């Protein structure tokens, strides 16, 4: 945390920053941020850091100047190439510039966070999902090709069809984890398209009726409003799929899970009902991340992701009721057109 004067020079800092600065550069008072970090462009301009041609694109300079000019808090990311004992070192920083006034004198409090590690992890994750989805897509394609070509020659082509199904499941699981990771970081971009509700629910019914959780259980479509929605179909299907899977797991063998949708001029309300009742102490924590009554690794994401995707990216809301008379009903309500 640094305090800058109107000339963008460091005049004070908190103890933690002072200890670091004193250890790396004893003459940091009166310096500018790029000079403290030994930015390779800090001495290029006529008046030091912030005045050179490379400084035009510097996130730190942009944050500080905008905070000075408009008297408001500004956040920017900043990429810096620093001089070091082993050559040039790259840093990724997040800069938070906040204007303050003390006894009539204006200052900028500049908080600088090193986000290099999170940037590296994000890049590796993107590369991982890109490569894995490509590989799984190749497996799915070749499995489908083999199944089509050998269908007439094989007495039983179930293994090939099963291989194709497993590849499709792998692709969907990878996409689900990717979407959740991007959603939590704020990087998920919805893909809006128009589609009919009835077709979506019919596909989900067929897909989850063959899910292992649906063994000896029935999925029944009740009232279905067959209007058109304009939203991210894949994210909505993921929310409804999680609702269906949870409902099936909570339903005893021989039981039925009901699915339906009501539409109005402004929104559509989907529901999934099962006959079970959620204990009160579980209801209080139902949407918490990693909360699960099953105590298994990797559980506790489904209901949390419903809330995150539907409310954070579809502009809707997720609710539930659980009573002895009506069972448990999860509802997701979204606008007919994504805002």
DSSP, total strands: 12
Write down the overall geometry: elongated
Distance between the termini: 38 Å
Succession of helices and strands: EEHHHEEEHHEHEEHEEHHEE
Into which percent range does the helicity of residues fall? 25-40%
Oligomer: single chain
Average pLDDT rating: 85
How do the strands of the widest beta sheet line up side by side? Answer: 2-1-5-4-3
User: Structural class of the helices, strands and pairings?
Assistant: alpha+beta
Short description:
The chain is α+β, with helices and mostly antiparallel strands and 339 residues long. Helices cover 40% and strands 27% of the residues. The strands form three sheets. Strands 2-1-5-4-3 form a five-stranded antiparallel beta sheet. A five-stranded mixed beta sheet has the order 7-9-10-12-11.
Overview of the structural elements:
This protein has 339 residues and is α+β, with helices and mostly antiparallel strands. A hairpin with a 3-residue loop joins strand 9 (256-263) and strand 10 (267-274). It is built from nine helices and twelve strands. A five-stranded antiparallel sheet has the order 2-1-5-4-3. A five-stranded mixed sheet has the order 7-9-10-12-11. A two-stranded antiparallel sheet has the order 6-8. It is elongated and about 80 Å long.
